[in-house]
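INFO batch 0412 | record 1 of 1 | parsing
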Amino acid sequence: MTGVTSADQALMRRALTVARAATDTADVPIGAIVLGSDGTELAAACNAREALADPTAHAEVLALRAAAAVLGSWRLEGSTLVVTVEPCTMCAGAIALARVARVVFGAWEPKTGAAGSLWDVLRDRRMTHRPEVIGGVLESECAGLLEDFFAGRRGNCRTRPAH
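INFO prediction complete | emitting tokens
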């Protein structure tokens, strides 16, 4: 993994901690943190689509909104977003529009990923803003969290009586 630092790994561990909070609300455990240009954590969020009944309540979007509120500006220039799973197209668009400088993500998402898997919105030359993208940081841990979550959900479905 080119460009991955021990600091990126430490930040991903923080994002994993944030992700685990989503399991309390039955949301998919994805966590995101936003750091300011000086490295200070501005915001952290986990998925909250179920908790908020909001299809846009992805961890990345919620963290970007909270960071913008802290800064009093939608321009998050110089910031870093760390997220446990590769952003989808909606989140990638929000990241680009917020002018995030660097995106670090954990697990690749081949079905919906928009940072190199299915699409590469963040590095598309047609975009006016293209952040640096580092993928696969602590990939096994991030993917494992999702695998455990979905295995538990499938397990719950099997134990329900058939009607």
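INFO post-check: Residues 139-159 form the longest helix (21 residues).
INFO record closed
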